[in-house]
Specification:
Layout: H1 14-24, E1 29-31, E2 37-39, E3 60-62, H2 66-75, E4 80-87, E5 90-98, E6 101-108, H3 118-121
Parallel strand pairs: 3-6
Antiparallel strand pairs: 1-2, 4-5, 5-6
Protein backbone atom coordinates (compact mmCIF):
# COMPACT_ATOMS: atom_id res chain seq x y z
CA UNK A 1 0.00 0.00 0.00
CA UNK A 2 1.02 3.64 -0.33
CA UNK A 3 3.35 4.72 2.49
CA UNK A 4 3.95 8.37 1.62
CA UNK A 5 4.27 11.07 -1.01
CA UNK A 6 7.52 12.07 -2.69
CA UNK A 7 7.09 15.61 -4.04
CA UNK A 8 9.51 17.15 -6.53
CA UNK A 9 10.35 20.83 -6.82
CA UNK A 10 12.17 21.86 -10.00
CA UNK A 11 14.24 25.03 -9.92
CA UNK A 12 17.10 26.70 -11.76
CA UNK A 13 18.20 27.67 -8.23
CA UNK A 14 18.13 24.15 -6.73
CA UNK A 15 20.89 24.85 -4.18
CA UNK A 16 19.10 27.97 -2.94
CA UNK A 17 15.79 26.10 -2.63
CA UNK A 18 17.52 23.29 -0.73
CA UNK A 19 19.05 25.91 1.59
CA UNK A 20 15.57 27.37 2.16
CA UNK A 21 14.18 23.96 3.12
CA UNK A 22 17.19 23.19 5.35
CA UNK A 23 18.02 26.57 6.91
CA UNK A 24 14.72 28.47 6.95
CA UNK A 25 12.11 25.74 7.38
CA UNK A 26 14.48 23.48 9.37
CA UNK A 27 13.31 20.36 7.49
CA UNK A 28 15.58 17.42 8.33
CA UNK A 29 17.00 15.40 5.44
CA UNK A 30 18.74 12.19 4.52
CA UNK A 31 21.54 11.86 2.00
CA UNK A 32 20.20 9.86 -0.93
CA UNK A 33 23.78 9.44 -2.16
CA UNK A 34 26.42 11.81 -3.40
CA UNK A 35 25.25 14.62 -1.13
CA UNK A 36 21.74 14.67 -2.65
CA UNK A 37 19.35 15.63 0.18
CA UNK A 38 15.79 14.35 0.47
CA UNK A 39 13.84 16.38 3.01
CA UNK A 40 11.28 15.12 5.50
CA UNK A 41 7.96 16.94 5.32
CA UNK A 42 5.21 17.55 7.84
CA UNK A 43 1.98 15.56 7.38
CA UNK A 44 0.43 16.09 3.96
CA UNK A 45 -2.90 15.88 2.21
CA UNK A 46 -3.91 15.83 -1.45
CA UNK A 47 -6.95 17.25 -3.23
CA UNK A 48 -8.07 16.86 -6.83
CA UNK A 49 -9.73 19.77 -8.62
CA UNK A 50 -11.50 19.43 -11.98
CA UNK A 51 -9.88 21.22 -14.89
CA UNK A 52 -10.52 21.63 -18.61
CA UNK A 53 -6.86 22.54 -19.10
CA UNK A 54 -3.90 20.18 -19.22
CA UNK A 55 -2.99 18.37 -16.04
CA UNK A 56 -1.15 20.61 -13.58
CA UNK A 57 0.03 20.22 -10.00
CA UNK A 58 0.61 22.75 -7.23
CA UNK A 59 2.44 22.59 -3.90
CA UNK A 60 1.47 24.70 -0.89
CA UNK A 61 2.83 24.79 2.62
CA UNK A 62 0.06 24.90 5.24
CA UNK A 63 0.09 26.73 8.57
CA UNK A 64 -2.24 27.46 11.48
CA UNK A 65 -1.52 31.21 11.66
CA UNK A 66 -0.38 32.84 8.42
CA UNK A 67 0.51 36.18 10.01
CA UNK A 68 2.71 34.57 12.67
CA UNK A 69 4.34 32.25 10.14
CA UNK A 70 5.07 35.11 7.73
CA UNK A 71 6.58 37.12 10.62
CA UNK A 72 8.83 34.19 11.61
CA UNK A 73 9.94 33.69 8.02
CA UNK A 74 10.57 37.44 7.64
CA UNK A 75 12.92 37.26 10.64
CA UNK A 76 14.89 34.70 8.61
CA UNK A 77 15.06 37.00 5.57
CA UNK A 78 12.15 35.56 3.58
CA UNK A 79 9.86 38.02 1.77
CA UNK A 80 6.45 37.61 0.21
CA UNK A 81 6.19 37.22 -3.54
CA UNK A 82 2.49 38.13 -3.47
CA UNK A 83 0.29 40.00 -1.01
CA UNK A 84 -1.77 37.95 1.45
CA UNK A 85 -5.26 37.53 0.09
CA UNK A 86 -8.47 36.19 1.53
CA UNK A 87 -10.14 33.34 -0.34
CA UNK A 88 -13.26 31.48 0.72
CA UNK A 89 -11.05 28.43 1.42
CA UNK A 90 -8.25 30.24 3.29
CA UNK A 91 -5.71 33.03 3.56
CA UNK A 92 -2.98 32.59 0.95
CA UNK A 93 0.28 34.11 -0.27
CA UNK A 94 3.54 32.95 -1.80
CA UNK A 95 7.10 33.19 -0.57
CA UNK A 96 10.25 34.18 -2.47
CA UNK A 97 12.48 31.18 -1.77
CA UNK A 98 15.20 31.76 -4.38
CA UNK A 99 15.80 33.97 -7.40
CA UNK A 100 12.79 33.31 -9.60
CA UNK A 101 11.36 30.62 -7.30
CA UNK A 102 8.25 30.96 -5.17
CA UNK A 103 6.30 28.60 -2.96
CA UNK A 104 2.66 28.95 -1.96
CA UNK A 105 1.63 28.99 1.68
CA UNK A 106 -1.83 29.20 3.20
CA UNK A 107 -3.90 29.05 6.34
CA UNK A 108 -6.91 26.85 5.54
CA UNK A 109 -10.44 27.82 6.55
CA UNK A 110 -11.72 24.38 5.53
CA UNK A 111 -11.43 21.11 7.45
CA UNK A 112 -8.11 19.38 6.74
CA UNK A 113 -7.16 15.73 6.54
CA UNK A 114 -3.85 16.23 8.37
CA UNK A 115 -4.95 14.33 11.48
CA UNK A 116 -6.02 11.27 9.54
CA UNK A 117 -3.76 8.28 9.12
CA UNK A 118 -4.04 4.82 7.68
CA UNK A 119 -4.04 3.47 11.25
CA UNK A 120 -7.02 5.69 12.15
CA UNK A 121 -9.02 4.25 9.21
CA UNK A 122 -8.66 0.64 10.36
Amino acid sequence: MITGIHALVYSKQADAVRAFLRDVLDFPSVDAGGGWPIFALPPAEIAVHPSDAADAHELYLMCDDLDATVATLASKGITLATPIREERWGRVTSLKIAEGSTLGIYQPKHPTALGLSSAARK
